[in-house]
Fold MCD, Malonyl-CoA decarboxylase MCD.
Amino acid sequence: MNMNMKFLQDLLSRVSSRARDHDVGGRGRTSKSGSSPLFQLSAACHALMNSGGEASRILVAQRALEHYAQLDAQDRVAFFTLLAEEYAADSEAVHLAYAAYRDEESNANLERLFTACEPARQNLLRRLNLCPGGTFELVKMRADLLGLLKEHPELAPLDADFAHLFSSWFNRGFLVLESIDWNTPAAVLEKVIQYEAVHEIHDWEDLRRRLGPQDRRCYAFFHPATGDEPLIFVEVALCRGIPDNIQSILASTEELDANDADTAVFYSISNCQRGLKGVSFGNFLIKQVVQELKRELPNLREFVTLSPVPGFAAWLSSARSAGQVKLSPHAESALEEGAWQENEESRKTLAGELMPLAAHYFLEAKHRSGQPLDPVARFHLGNGASLHRMNWPGDTSTKGLKQAHGLMVNYRYQIDQIEQNHEAYSRESSIICSSEIRRMAAKQKPRSQQKADA
Amino acid sequence: MNMNMKFLQDLLSRVSSRARDHDVGGRGRTSKSGSSPLFQLSAACHALMNSGGEASRILVAQRALEHYAQLDAQDRVAFFTLLAEEYAADSEAVHLAYAAYRDEESNANLERLFTACEPARQNLLRRLNLCPGGTFELVKMRADLLGLLKEHPELAPLDADFAHLFSSWFNRGFLVLESIDWNTPAAVLEKVIQYEAVHEIHDWEDLRRRLGPQDRRCYAFFHPATGDEPLIFVEVALCRGIPDNIQSILASTEELDANDADTAVFYSISNCQRGLKGVSFGNFLIKQVVQELKRELPNLREFVTLSPVPGFAAWLSSARSAGQVKLSPHAESALEEGAWQENEESRKTLAGELMPLAAHYFLEAKHRSGQPLDPVARFHLGNGASLHRMNWPGDTSTKGLKQAHGLMVNYRYQIDQIEQNHEAYSRESSIICSSEIRRMAAKQKPRSQQKADA
Amino acid sequence: MNMNMKFLQDLLSRVSSRARDHDVGGRGRTSKSGSSPLFQLSAACHALMNSGGEASRILVAQRALEHYAQLDAQDRVAFFTLLAEEYAADSEAVHLAYAAYRDEESNANLERLFTACEPARQNLLRRLNLCPGGTFELVKMRADLLGLLKEHPELAPLDADFAHLFSSWFNRGFLVLESIDWNTPAAVLEKVIQYEAVHEIHDWEDLRRRLGPQDRRCYAFFHPATGDEPLIFVEVALCRGIPDNIQSILASTEELDANDADTAVFYSISNCQRGLKGVSFGNFLIKQVVQELKRELPNLREFVTLSPVPGFAAWLSSARSAGQVKLSPHAESALEEGAWQENEESRKTLAGELMPLAAHYFLEAKHRSGQPLDPVARFHLGNGASLHRMNWPGDTSTKGLKQAHGLMVNYRYQIDQIEQNHEAYSRESSIICSSEIRRMAAKQKPRSQQKADA
Amino acid sequence: MNMNMKFLQDLLSRVSSRARDHDVGGRGRTSKSGSSPLFQLSAACHALMNSGGEASRILVAQRALEHYAQLDAQDRVAFFTLLAEEYAADSEAVHLAYAAYRDEESNANLERLFTACEPARQNLLRRLNLCPGGTFELVKMRADLLGLLKEHPELAPLDADFAHLFSSWFNRGFLVLESIDWNTPAAVLEKVIQYEAVHEIHDWEDLRRRLGPQDRRCYAFFHPATGDEPLIFVEVALCRGIPDNIQSILASTEELDANDADTAVFYSISNCQRGLKGVSFGNFLIKQVVQELKRELPNLREFVTLSPVPGFAAWLSSARSAGQVKLSPHAESALEEGAWQENEESRKTLAGELMPLAAHYFLEAKHRSGQPLDPVARFHLGNGASLHRMNWPGDTSTKGLKQAHGLMVNYRYQIDQIEQNHEAYSRESSIICSSEIRRMAAKQKPRSQQKADA
């Protein structure tokens, strides 16, 4: 790898001045050898690219990752900038390789051009990955990077390298599905508590309620290189009939005989690793869990979600502001005062006005991609599920009220229709939904058309 | 991916004519739907690249690999050619991306060029890898490809793509070291019998002699995605002192208490998957096994190999033909008649003449890379081992006599010198060897110099 | 434990004279300390009963079992005699305890009498069992003892102690059912080869044919204290329909999709440990395997055996000798010459005469216990199976011809009738069999009644 | 089994009147069939003894144990009384067997007498143990029984039967040692929280502090038949030097590198199953854990406990009441006011007076068995440990202050002296202790002798 030698000198001056600053600040992050972690990290990266046999690289990679772990926020930016700028491809080599390809468009010449274009940092990341535990450290490193992209858009190509490698490393063929229950090691369970992103798990007793009973299941994907770190998990409730309410699932004290259940409800799906953004697991997970459950419990006939509608309240608010949608005064005040939960009449009014609006939201409100505005809808419809039923009020927690005025929906996974649903959705952005919801949306349309006509 | 549409038409005509041929030949490989596996495979590949959600791709990938498994040799060439030619990068996109990069050498533009240069087949291979068991099928597919490269050098870029992906997928961080012994599942053991490449394992009893006793060990690397398929394994004998003879190890009937051993001997290393050519496991394996053994058996002080010298006899023969080396008439006839094994005097004569020649072979005979001519020497010296001792006769099997006139050597792994040995070897091609061997080689030198002087 | 002190003196003199003999014989079995294993074993047993904490007993027990392993046949008799005579209960204590019980028949007094009656050797055996691996050594010790009982009927009470302990230790609640297949460790598989008692397994390839295909199963009971030593195993073939022939199962090369099978056939059941004689596993095993298979393969509707009839030929021979049964001259000569296998006519004749006799044998020939004469029939009928079908010729192996003139039968396990079958069999010795077999037996009856009437 | 028929009638009348009472009380514990659990249980026991094959017994046993689980306290007494009285041995059979034995004291006759004396309930318990999970149910049943023995001493023989069976079933050879850590299934960990008997575990975070750090260990014995129910466990801290204080262990936030530790401290040993009273695990456990730790961490040189002194405060109180021991007024008031913890002078005074008394307590205060009065001392000294050091104040928790005025001691396990210590202790009740403690005790002696002389 033809590494620009100037960079090391630049780097040395930069990191040594930084090291000096640190001494002044007395932050003491300098290592025993007197040099800062940033300096040591960059030296280790240099060594990793330029010397050594494969076995010695394991040690260097290990040290590099230890140094990285000591960086503060500022140093991380410096390190990522170093990767982006100095571990890019060698531009001269690119020009030469292109010239050859231009002269003869052979496969071999293209391969050389491809190699010349590959940023050196991809190789660096591969070598950092040599050491035991390296994969997870790199996943965390990318999580750090993602947090910086907004302020440092110039680091985007570095992120693309991570994404490129991770999509290879976390290929679906390498994932292992594991059931998580009360017999799972505590070291894994505490991560489930930590990573749950939809309906918070408050403590170990709460966790036990979700994992212990025979009418509850939890499945996660793991990757051999990241050991007992779950990548994504889904929590499942086994029920009779399709539930319309999350509190009844979370607070349930009665236990159904698993063999008596006819419906499996996916009520929480959590991605665990921010650093794996863009590597898609969720659709594989749900479909594999459906297979697993069908095999174990042949009585199951329905596979549905009980899902939040995270974008509804925000959409409604902005649609109202824009005058595209209008609520009755009664409904307005009920929503504002939040008092509808105890007031039968308010509930009726709201149900009558919110349901058509919600149906409209699902079918008509669009993301810039042309897909539905609601991110959870995009996920499940993109997986080939259909929008089955709206449940109101389905989630009366603070979070549920805030993001969706208490609305929840069921998406339905019908094994034999997933493919065609998916195709219809991805080709024509067709939203497959129940006739009930379509009817509901129709109620709303005229009004919004009236609006448009006006 | 901007796929050239012409290819499909070409392909269709090609495969349909082929299908017709098949019908004539009545080979019956056409599937129920009347079309040949090659046609179906190419259609599946097309589908994999152009449609569907990720979950549906699993099924398509599965079908594609099933079709591939049915191809005959001729069809494989056709399929690989298809991949090489039609799943290359889009040349127009390359030119455009390059133009942008030339105008502005930004990271982002380079990333686009890199993406444009990436052959579409890399993505195709990644998608074929989606299905369960796909990884192993792809490894076997590359083994097929490697067998065709000599006759079809135009397929080399395709092989480079495989190599590129496999070095990511079979990253050392994903490998799992497992001990193999008589408690290992029979399904794995039969593969050890099958893959042993150095000293053949004749049957289950032979296998048991190598795995069962407490002074024998075997370790293998596995990869989660290829399940119980070993990638590489090493067989180890625990001894007192460094052994000079392979037959005494293979035929041993006495069992040493493992705690009494002071020496671990690596006497057989076998790569199991031809399709993983170029993905290096061996050096990691030996070093990890050394760690493992040291931890379990603190009394071990020496870690050596008992290795074949596969290139010695051929080198000697050609050196003699070229007049660079001369044996005494007695030695010549002893070698020719092969009678030296039972003849004490012949043995003495041969020992006196062969040892200096062998030392010379190791130190002076060079590969075009500047490294030693002997491939096993390149492997161990490249790993940081030193050439420790020559043993003659060390292997009196037919194979051992044929390839090295019975010569074996010990390479020695000294943990604290591996790094510097490796550096010296890789930087300066220095061959680290015992003074005894160096002295032996010196005996030869004058003679060959005489030769040169003459 | 109030140990009679005289015994030690006796023992000492006996074993020392024996030791002397050994020296004369120069058999060299005396240990380093100059004393024989028998002496050391008896000393260790004494120590085990009279001293030490529980932890020290582990060591003593270990040594004792090592000494036992060195005994020759003669010494074993001496040792067992020692156990029988000197580790009996203390007769004086028995008399005293009885006197107390006679005076007051309290629970407490009975408990004391019970304790006084318990032979000291039960406690000794329990203490020998303290050391790791002790259980299996004791099982083998009893196997030795069983081999001596015929010649040494006086050792029967000692055998009763073993039986008493083993029925506690090998309680069904402690057994673990494991599936054995081609993924089972070789160390276990070689025991399956060794222990197979019904249809010999010739080599590893033969074994693979019985374990590898998806339409073959094997299950074994293990006990935690005897580790990977199988106690009993059953081999199962999954078929369509009930097979009538063992050779077609053993030599099968076609593999049925397990999900297409409707019948599970238990074609071989082998007890592995002679030393566990009288501890019944077989009935638990079959019933648990039936449950297991039903769960995994819901399409299975029939559970039958394909069983040998080990007592038929012997019974027929003696019945003929006794004049109770008469074959036609043609049948007689066909049987004698053994030529019927290739001769269609002989086969017909034999079928016509042997089947009624066989049915008669099952229904009328009685063991002294009042149960059927055939031991395999006793086992399966006692388990609640019914006698379903006779198959002739069902086993044309040398063994099959010799013991049953080629006859095999199917016993049928119908889960919902097992209980009542068992009750009927055990209360009234009712043999539950198919009407076909009953009809067959009826054909025979008149003849034998004629005989009786004559 | 010759069952007294009268008992059934008695039982019927008893349980039917009880059933009536229940109806009156409206407690509704009668089952669907209208009969009480007690009645059904006794019927099931009768069935278990008198009918059925072994397989059917599994079902009956299961039902019996389910009925037992429904019994209330009063019913349990009735059931245990039934077992004690009606499932005793048949007295007539005992007399007959004895008569035969008296006439001829043969082994066979003794065996028959032994069999006649064995209470039928032993067989009943063995058959109850047939069903899956039966063993643990029986352990709990005995725990119930133990709680009743004080009020119902007549049930002691029944308890002896349980003890007899359990010592066979829970033979050391059947126990499995497992390490318990933060990777252990939560279902086991919650039992550790529940069963911890020495230093309470407050919640999961507290548990993690005891299991998670690398300088903490926990080991438990399990039995295959009771699955994941720990029988006994010990918690270990790895330290540098011998600790003198439990709070510093329990509250530790610093983590020692396990390889740097030179001392393993057993600071809590908890028996988990009351029903296994009298079945000794503790000494095996400690010794096996010592082996395990030595193997894993060769740097460990000392194995000690940090143990409570549960009997010290009570002994001191009664010795003071009896005038055998006298504290200074200052010490008296310091102890009474409990204010010594913050008062340096009081601490000094108390140390000076309490330590000799404590040493005296260990060496002179005796249990009726002649062993030390302190139960923890009996346990460890009986195991072959020595009394190494007194630590004051070692436990300032409420419990520690209450039972021992804050005193803790270290018992020391020296592998090569365990045997002789044990022998000396068990033969001569010699208490092996450090010279320091002996010297301390000597200080006290004169005073107490003075007392005696006075």
Summary: The longest strand of chain D covers residues 263-271. The CA atoms of residues 213 and 255 of chain D lie 6 Å apart.
